[in-house]
Each structure stands twice: as structure tokens, then as C-alpha cells.
UniProtKB/TrEMBL annotation, chain A:
Keywords: Membrane, Transmembrane, Transmembrane helix. Residues 111-130 are annotated as: Disordered. Residues 111-120 have a biased composition (Acidic residues). It comes from Modicisalibacter muralis. The chain crosses the membrane at residues 12-33, 45-65, 71-92. It comes from the Bacteria. InterPro entries: PhaG_MnhG_YufB. This is Multisubunit potassium/proton antiporter, PhaG subunit (TC 2.A.63.1.1). One of its GO terms (molecular function) is sodium:proton antiporter activity.
TrEMBL record, chain B:
This is Multisubunit potassium/proton antiporter, PhaE subunit (TC 2.A.63.1.1). It is a multi-pass membrane protein. Coiled coil: none annotated. Belongs to the CPA3 antiporters (TC 2.A.63) subunit E family.
Amino acid sequence: MIGFYTVMEGVIAFFLIAGGVFAFIGSFGLARLKDFFMRLHGPSKTSTLGVGCVLIASMCYFSLIEGSLSLQGMLITIFLFITAPVSAHLLAKSALHYKLARDPRTLDDIEELKDGEDDEKPNGENGHLP
Amino acid sequence: MIPTQRWLPMPLLSLLLLAMWLLLQQSVSLGQILLGSLLALVIPLITQPFWERQPMLKHPWLLVRYIFRVLGDIIIANLQVSKLILDPRGRMSPAFIEYPLELTEMLPITILASSITLTPGTVSVNLRKDRRTLVIHALNTGDREDTIAQIRERYERPLKEIFEC
């Protein structure tokens, strides 16, 4: 017979490991993806779930230890889910403004990335990475 | 009698503030509820000039359903993005997508843009000044029309229903 605490320990360990894995993949994506816009995908998604998992584990743990529902972790999650998209959006917006180099496979026939006449082209042909 | 609009300009914000206060205090005792309610009334009144006019929430229970849908999608999004990142061949077809907005109010557009950033393979990049088009960057897109239709169906329509605008 497996006790309640053993099961909870397993659940908490699972969330901690899952959180760690997601956070790692997110940062790995930062290193591996080719251009700025693609790199943005890693931290904006993977890290939110990574931190989310760790917080779920923390909430379970402290609820168990203190014997009462511990919900402060929820607050961190809520704030994170509100702020992560905003910072990602601001970063992307300024990247678009500077017309940062895109991966050559990117379909980028949008108004914002059309070349103006007096644009400098620091990034080679059509603003694509070589 | 003073009209409700005057002393409670943003009921949603007030409710959120009260909930935040109680969560931070970790208690639901009468004193904390009173103090929280006072803050929830005073803060919106003081910061009112700072806010844009907020649309009324017509169907709050649909918002709850929407939140759970987005949470589910966040998990799927993470698995998909993880798979893309770890794929050794690194086959990806990133694209910028121009998404024609049906929503007009600022708050729903903000929620939509945030949902897009948090969910499968898309980041909202720019809201054009006329507020009609949202530029989205997709990590891996087969078909642009497909992605647009998907976002319209899953997020924008429900939001439109929730805020009825």
C-alpha cells in the first residue's frame, strides 16, 4: 500500500522535473534558433510553463507541509501570464521597427518590412541572414 | 443616489484587486475583506483618468471557459514548440502573418494578443496604428489562411462573444 505522502511526493517531483525540462528547452531554443523573431518563441512560451510547473509543485508542497491551502504561487503565475506576453510583444515590436535580420526561410512580405529608400541595410540582401 | 458608474467605474478591476489582496494576505477574515474592499474601491477611483474606457463584460462565465481553453493550449503550445526546438533537422517555415482584427476595443485586443503569444507557435508582433491589423510571427506555419482561421475560431470569436462588441 502506497501512502498518500509518497504519492504526493511523486506528483511534486514530477512537476519539478517537468518545469526544469521546459525551462531548459526554452533556453536551448534561445541558443539554437536562427533569428531574433524565432528565438522569441522559446522564452515567451516554454519558460511560462516551466515556471508554472515549479510553482504548482511549490503550492502542493507548502499546502501539504502547512496543512492549509497555499495559494500565493497562483499570484506569481497570474502575474507571469500577464507580463510575459507584454514584454515579448515589446521586444518583437522594436525588432520589427529596426527590421532585424530574418531567417531566409521566413515569409516576410508585410508592410513593416518593406525597404524604404533611405534604409541602411546592415544585414545583407533583403534583410535576411546569410 | 449616486449612480454606480460614479463610485464603481471598473467593477472587474475592483474584483481583481480584492481577489489579489486576499490571496496576498492568505486569509478571508472579515477585517481583510473590509480592507481589501476599501482598496478595491479607492484604487480604481484614483487611477480612473489613467484608464481607457473599458467595455462591459457581458458573459463572465464564458471568460472562465476561455481561460481554461487558453491554459490547455499553453500546454499544447509548449509541447509543439519543444518538439520544433529539439528536432535535429530543424525544419521550420517561419512567417509573418497579417491578421485582420474583428475586435475594436483595446482590452479585448490586448487579451487576444496575449493569448496569441502564449499559444501554439505564434507571437503577436505589432498592432498597426489603425487597430485593424495585428502582425503575428509564426514559428512554423503550413498555411497562413489556416492559421488566421484557427485564431479567429478559437480566440477572437469567443472574446467577441464575451465582450459583445
